[in-house]
Amino acid sequence: MSGDRPEMTYEQAREELVDVVRKLEAGGTSLEESLALWERGEELAGTCQRWLDGARERLAKAQAAHEEKPN
C-alpha cells in the first residue's frame, strides 16, 4: 500500500464486504471459517472507512477553498 491510499478501491472493498456478510449470514461454515470471514470483514470495513474519511477530507478542503475565494 502506498501512502494512506488503500490497495483496493472503495467499490472493490464494499463488494467483497457484502459477500463476506452474506456468507456469515448464510451460516454453514465452521467456527474457523467464520472467524476468518469476520476478520476479513473487519479489514474490508477499515478499507471502506479510510476511503470515506479521505473523501470527506477532500470535500471539506474543496469547500473551504471555495468559501475562501472572493466573489
Report on this model:
- It is rod-shaped, with a radius of gyration of 17 Å.
- It has 71 residues and is an all-alpha fold.
- The mean pLDDT is 91.
- It has two helices and no strands.
- It has helices at 10-26, 31-68.
- Helix 1 (10-26) packs antiparallel against helix 2.
- Belongs to the XseB family.
- InterPro entries: Exonuc_VII_S, Exonuc_VII_ssu_sf.
Condensed summary:
The protein is mainly alpha-helical and 71 residues long. The protein has helices at residues 10-26, 31-68.
List keywords for this structure.
71 residues, mainly alpha, 2 helices
Note the topology:
Elements: H1 10-26, H2 31-68
Helix pairs in contact: 1-2
Major pleated sheet: none
Which class do the helix and strand fractions yield?
mainly alpha
Structure annotation, total helices:
2
Principal-axis shape equals rod-shaped
Q: Helical residue percent?
A: over 70%
